[in-house]
Design goal:
5 helices; Arc Repressor Mutant, subunit A; alpha+beta
Length: 120
């Protein structure tokens, strides 16, 4: 990572197999941008199978699906992040920002304790 700013990676666990974290949030963002589960997965360096498994997990976790897909046809298939998916993503990103603000003093204290980075 080229940026030296501390990063807080938040995972919210609701129970066994029911969680959202940085990977699922990024996948939702990329599906929304590309309109494709496969393309989003490729951009993240994961297989379509892995990306689809994460989508299925999110769809089962929420009361309404986070992502819907259309099967391929003459123009190919696609995927759409639903209102539920967009709301979940916004809530997760909001929790992430709030956690970072709340931990600001502690992160500064930890940063002050770090050894200097090794020289290249």
């Amino acid at each position: 990572m080229s940026d030296t700013s501390p990063v807080l990676r938040l995972r919210i666990v609701f129970g066994p197999g029911r969680m959202i974290g940085p990977g699922k949030a990024e996948l939702l963002e990329r599906i929304a941008r590309t309109g494709s589960i496969a393309a989003a997965g490729r951009e993240m360096g994961m297989s379509y199978k892995r990306a689809w498994l994460l989508v299925e997990t999110m769809n089962a976790m929420f009361a309404e699906p986070a992502v819907t897909r259309t099967r391929g046809g003459a123009r190919g298939g696609g995927a759409t992040v639903t209102d539920t998916g967009r709301a979940a993503l916004a809530a997760y990103r909001g929790a992430e920002a709030a956690a970072l603000r709340a931990a600001d003093d502690e992160i500064a204290a930890l940063t002050a304790l770090l050894a200097p980075p090794p020289e290249a």
